[in-house]
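We include this case.
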Amino acid sequence: MTTAPLSLEHSIRPSSLTKGKPPVLFMLHGYGSNEEDLFSFAPELPMELCVISVRAPYPMEPFGYAWYAINFDAQQGKWSDDQQAALSREKIVIFMEEACKTYGLDDGRITLLGFSQGTILSYAVALSYPEKVKNVIALSGYINKKILIHGYADKNHDNLMIYASHGQVDQVIPPEWAQKASPFLNKLGIEHVYEEFPVGHGVAPQNFHSFKKWLMGRI
């Protein structure tokens, strides 16, 4: 399918459904990557899903894209641009609405699948706007509370479900950061699964099969 000129560049695999509005899975890639990265999962995902892989808005040199800047300062160390991340959170929400309207998708059955920085944004969107997201697949990332909207804890998260996983030897994002998700999600009453796999900063085959099985029953 040819992509429409929406606010964010993207790749799309249409749903196999010929009637009604199909469910949709939005993919959010990691820092320095692009929309083609996670899109390699698309052929293996349920055919009734419309799969849309989104390109982050900020270009990097010499190539790749980011949802927000990560700066490396000799005195401050590594730090993230949370203001830019919050802007990307809103860009994603707008894009989701555009895509559902343009491609005739079911905005009540939205799944976000993120990797690394894309996971951080997936959490931010879903926890801030639980009325807009049904499922989250959070791979190799963590919850950054600084980029959640004010009052997020007062919202109803009852219909949101989350699958989270992390590599046990991830040297980019420490497993300890990811492990904080479970108690945080428990406080909000969010049904979730958290798993770890014996890999670094990546998605092992057994990880893929695990989240695919989880998703199959929740589309």
